[in-house]
């Protein structure tokens, strides 16, 4: 059996039609398959490789740290300099009240930790989340996931969860002094790139403050420069009580975090029961990689270029089959007629060396979320292939 056959036989699948491309190398904007074919990556591992694949400084940081030490002891017991310096770097770039970082293995684990923290801090049990939101696949994260069809398969889920309408002012009335936390994506990603109404976001912040409810913003997908500012909430004019990060945080390695004030975070520590424990969360090699990736993101001044690159995409994504393009920086959803048209166009793009896909809750939308290092020439070349694909598929 070849590797592809072995993969289908022995590696658990998450879909009944996996892409099953065998990639042997990735660098910057590109990946290469086992036959040497090159793919321009418009997905960035779902918003992971913001500084590009295998950034040399990230690779070097991994090598250096792996030679020093890897795993020592369960999270939070030893002083590990990669964790300390990355937490310091992150908090130096955050508003004062977000000054304490809990590193996790993944975005979903950070979501779980944030929900537990909100329950402990407020002494309340109810959590409100939004329709069309995605926060991960673990049981707690699944309970708040904003799609009934997905949730139904795994009931019973967590009790005390309310699902509200994103961007809907009336929905905010359901937030009360019983609500421990409201969790929202700063820009809904898997819902097909839905940015919040700024007035609504402000009202949400005010309602949370008035009811003593913690506001949790999930920036796992939209944070770390993708939206054109380091943090997506900078464009919303509000600050969350808890910020959730993941994906790009590890520079390509698995790393998530929930970040709050020391005062809030302390309630997870100062508790008669176990607060949150993780063996590998904040792994020193991953923190070293994350810190190097974060430094590269800033040093290479990638974030100030994001909005201009978004405009180049918008100029070149012109085709009668495109119904709309929703974008916030380099997080874009190209809305097409149907999933069928989208899937065929995606297949055309992949066959022609451009990697893209669709969104979990918006299958008719093509995802464009490339590494932020993408150049003008690459954007134009990618848009040309997408439009050619649409010509072929919709002719
Ligand atoms: N929140 C958001 C907004 C996400 O997009 C994702 C992953 N797609 C998660 C949380 C969960 O992250 P992970 O897959 O690392 O658990």
UniProtKB/TrEMBL annotation:
GO terms for molecular function: identical protein binding; pyridoxal phosphate binding; transaminase activity. Keywords: Aminotransferase, Pyridoxal phosphate, Transferase. InterPro entries: Aminotrans_3, Aminotrans_3_PPA_site, Class-III_PLP-dep_AT, PyrdxlP-dep_Trfase, PyrdxlP-dep_Trfase_major, PyrdxlP-dep_Trfase_small. The keyword Transferase applies. Its cofactor is pyridoxal 5'-phosphate. The keyword Signal does not apply. Belongs to the class-III pyridoxal-phosphate-dependent aminotransferase family. PANTHER family: ACETYLORNITHINE AMINOTRANSFERASE, MITOCHONDRIAL, AMINOTRANSFERASE CLASS III. This is Acetylornithine/succinyldiaminopimelate/putresci ne aminotransferase.
